[in-house]
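Assemble and predict.
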Amino acid sequence: MSSPADTEPRKLDLIDKAALNPELDDLTRKDYEWGFVTDIEQESLPPGLDEGTVRFISAKKNEPEWLLEWRLKAFRHWQTMTEPTWALVDYPPIDYQAISYYAAPKSDADKPQSLDEVDPELLETYEKLGIPLAERAALAGVAVDAVFDSVSVATTFKDKLGELGIIFCSFSEAVQEHPELVRKYLGSVVPQKDNYFSALNCAVFSDGSFVYIPKGVRCPMELSTYFRINAANTGQFERTLIVADEGSHVSYLEGCTAPMRDENQLHAAVVELVALDDAQIKYSTVQNWYPGDKNGVGGIYNFVTKRGACRGARSKISWTQVETGSAITWKYPSCILQGDDSVGEFYSVALTNNHQQADTGTKMIHIGKNTTSTIISKGISAGKAQNTYRGEVTMLAGAENARNYSQCDSLLMGDECGAHTFPYIEVKNPTAHLEHEASTSKIGEDQIFYLNQRGLGTEDAVNLIVNGFCKDVFRELPMEFAVEAQKLLSVSLEGAVG
Amino acid sequence: MSQAASPTQTTAPASAFETDHDAFVTAQPAPAWVAALRTEGLASFRALGLPSSRDEDWLYTNVRPLARGHFPPAPASVHPPTSLAAHRFALGLEEGPRLVVLNGRYEASLSSTAELPAGVHVTNLAACRDRGALEALGSVAQAVKHPFVALNQAYLDDAALVHVEAGTVVHAPIQILFLHTPTGDPVAVHPRILVVAEQGSDVTIVERYGIDCIGALAGGTCLTNAVSEYVLGANARVRTVRVQREGTRTYHLGFTGVRQARDSHFQSTSVSLGGAIDRNEVRAHLDAEGAENHLAGLYVISDEEHCDNHTVVHHHVPHGTSRQLFKGILAGQARGAFTGRVVVDKGAQKTSAEQANHNLLLSQKAVAETRPQLEIYADDVQCAHGATIGRLDVDALNYLRSRGIGKTEARNLLVHAFAREITEAAGDARIGEGLDALLAARLAPSSEGTQA
């Protein structure tokens, strides 16, 4: 039917492009800057997973009986589950027995009481990461709960927050000091049996952050957690639980890095948000796990379950994410809009380069009346990367006058990458109103040319265009993060335009 | 290529479709090459099994009723109708070239191929002695890839064949009618069409699926498992109109496979007017540069009916164009689903693809599901998709009512306007009018009880 000449791609185009922007290739090849390993004494479990592992972690954390039972229940269910295969990502099978499920800096037994007692080498790590942990925290006005491998290392600004009744501590601490709150909300948004990776997390989670904002309190500063996987062959399974009581308001930031290693490491976190009447939670993530090298060797598997429940009337949950790292990202921050007039938002920039794969998006489940949701997703794909938006909007029969607006745009740089859009939309109420728009296009050659003409180098031109493309999302980020995100984006993109 | 591309393997006990096969082969002997195709189809069906709703491609359509039920091949019609004129289904095309297949068998008395110009061969499979020009049969709709295509091939009996020679232009639409007589018991028919349009030819094909007596739309349970293959040569233009109106208790599974050569133009308009399960699949392959593919679809369903449109348009090479527009009108407790995927292969630069799905919910309990998907492996492309779900505009309704138009009439007027974009896309004015009339008939009875 078609002669070989017909099926031959137009090679001329490709050659021309490379000739046009020779420096672009160099741009994408910039190295991962956060790939250092901190040489501190680690205490970790040998690789392997059985009930003993779960019991060990629970005992190590000095957990109450109910939590151990809860973990075991999840573990037993996990054993009956199979790994999901529907995502558009490709990776060799994970050997769950080859992962170490617990790694902590050695000084766990006598945990530091203040920043002065923290291992200076550890502080140096955070210094390198550029998180404002110590004095810089005060300047930046950020309270940080830093999670190093699996254990929360230090939490700053605790006292100041305590005056307002805000609880911001590591998850282990919350289990000891606020068991009633943890028990009430743990697993109430993401049930143990929710999915393969969340079930695994329920069984073996080691630490994470816990936040409780009491009624009517507006948290005076941005709360922040920095995650880092340091030890080799470990998985990180942290758990974050944020509860915003009636009329409260909180903004939470999360950042992640990991050292460069040749083998893949698993990160399966669970984040649960609960917003009661009139409460607002803003959750921002800048994810920069090690993406693997240029040939796709190594990197983090980022299989994360994030979900927020707008339980109360007029509550609001807003997710903003900038995903530039990880070899594979599998992540769908979602909102369950239960309360009447509740609002869900999802703003995302997902950038993949080299051999990275991302299958990310959101779920908006409209249950209450007059609920509204907005989805803005910007996918940028370069090199040989695959970037997928997968999102679900469901409006149940009771969701009178529910509204959704979704916009998913993809930008392609290079002819070997892919950008995909898979929305799932289900409407069961005739008064609901829904719009979905998506577009895919390549970065405009004439735009680059225009900027070149005005004296901007190709690299700057690309950064300018990409930042413009992502503006709708960056606008939603807190200031410090927006700056970091822009920087990250330009680093990750270097050399991507062909 | 993509996730869940292959149906789930099942080790379930042999279904009735497999156990019925021996009796079918004995009752309907066929030439060796047809027998070989049947055997191959059955083997593929065995290997693939019936899909489950865990399969991404079958997420919105549950075919379990088919696995539970027993659908033996339909027996020959005892009293075939003598004329088609009485058909409400007539589309204004009582005259003109047509093939009529009744209960899976070609009805020479109702068919008419006399008026066709030279260069067009319209025939049925049973009339062909050897495979010859039928080389393409099974090449576009491949049994190994799809359980219901496999099933269709396993029960291959008679088929409608249209072969348009190079450069031939056929002005009159060629109608292919697949009718079945409702009986008390569930039966299955497996209609098959092969259209080969050679280089530079131009033809319109009207595929119609219905039952052979009036007023029996709520009649017996039937499974229609239709497969159509279209092979377009360079510069060929093929327009097809597909109308499904088999009644509320029918399980209709339709599969249309399209292969397009250089600069060919394929345009399809499908209209689904209800059924217990109605699934329409289109798999189009743009094999050479300059090919253009337009798919339009309308589904009008009510009560507990279910309609699922599922398309994959695959751009294999640069400079292809595809457009998809599907509209759903959903009343009662009906469930309408749309899954459309545009795949742009690596190297298929300068592709332009658009995809849209709009749904109108007319009742409290109707459900719309939509998945417009883009899977793109090339960078210099323009692809977009859009989806909307909503109800009738209250302001527009009030405007009409304040001018003395009754509630039902005003509503039908707006619904009709919504659907018009699709019926007009059929291209042929006569067919467009026929579709409008069908739509009006479909909307009339459902208008009570579904008032919002």
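The mean pLDDT of chain A is 79.
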